[in-house]
Prior knowledge:
- By secondary structure, the protein is of the alpha+beta class.
- Helix content is about 25%, strand content about 25%.
- Bound molecules: nickel (II) ion.
Amino acid sequence: MALLPIIHVPDDVLRQTAQPVQEVTAATRKLLDDMAETMYDAPGIGLAANQVGSLERVIVMDCGPDDSPELWRMINPEIIWESDETSTLEEGCLSIPGHNAEVVRPASVRARYIDIDGKPQEMEADGLLAACIQHEIDHLNGVLFIDHLSRLKKSMIWKKVLKSAR
Length: 166
Ligand code: NI
C-alpha cells in the first residue's frame, strides 16, 4: 500500500465528476487500499477518489470507534433512498483543512454500491455514517460540504481558503 497526496481546494479536480468503474480490477482494489491507508494516516473518516486526483467513482469510509474499525470500500456508490427527516452534524474535509461547519442532510439513507469483489451490495446508514457517505458521494459529483452552507458562510470560508492558497 502507499500513501497518496491529498488534494486541497481550490484544485479543479475537486469540482470534476468521477466516472463509473466499468470493471473491478487489481488496480481498483489497489486504489481503494491506498485511499484507506491515506485516510487512516490523515487521519480522517472518509475519502473520495477526486481527493487523491483520481476520477474513478470510488470512496472509502470508517466512522467506527477507534477500538473497532469499520472500513467501507465502495465502488460506484449511489444513494437510492433518503429520509425526509434531517440531521445537522459538524463536518470537515481533508481537502479543506482547518474549516468545519454544521451541515443539514437527510438523517438516514440507503445506498447501492459494488464491493471489492465486484458484487452489488446495499447498505443502510444513519448518524455519522449517513452524513459521511453523502459527503463522499458529493465529492464524486464535484460537490463540497461548503456548497450546502448559506451563501454568506460559504463565502467566508472560501475567502480564507483562497487567502491561504496564495
Ligand atoms: Ni471531504
